Amino acid sequence: MMTNCAVVFFGPPGSGKGTQAILLSDCLSVPHISTGDILREHVAAGDELGRQVQAIMRAGRLAPDELVNRIIEERIGRPDCARGFILDGYPRTVEQARLLSRLLESRGTGRVVVNLAVDYNIIVARITSRRLCPLCGSSYNLISNPPRADGVCDRDGTPLTAREDDSEAVIRQRFEAYERQTVPILEYFRASGYRFLDVDGNSGTPEEISRRICRLIEQE
Questions:
Q1: Which of 53, 57, 143, 192 shows the smallest number of beta carbons within 10 Å?
Q2: Residues assigned a catalytic role
């Protein structure tokens, strides 16, 4: 990986993007920066930013661009980001993307966009196959990690349940929202001269996919 490079990570809901960003952080030895995690950290710390974020969340609103941008700018200015970092969950708007471009350019930071492409039908099959034990919280997947006995928990024999938001209708709605919000950002980055990597995430273990992404980035 070239020195001082920002990896901006995208992937549809249920694609395993968060897992891949964490694995890639280990592979490249740079921090994984999740905007959701940062916001929760500030709320837990009870600092000024945290109080602002908490008030916004309680009102059921999204954090405004100005606040998120300020949080990201502060985070990537820390010493552990000197060699580079991975952004997961940011930017979420074209305006945030423009600010990020100006910020990285002013710092002389390299830029790579990773777009994890997974067929929506495959994601639907994965998510609708998830099952939970309502008693002990154990999780299963009828495709990749099924219980030993059909429909019941291995630990306590409790009938397994599916989460309401794991229904196909809800998942399809999330895909539609992702397309509306994210496609314009990807188009902005493509037009802005970012190095762009479309990575096939349809097959292979998470570790295999991560190694594939890591090799592509390090070819720079």
A1: 143
A2: 17, 92, 130, 163, 174
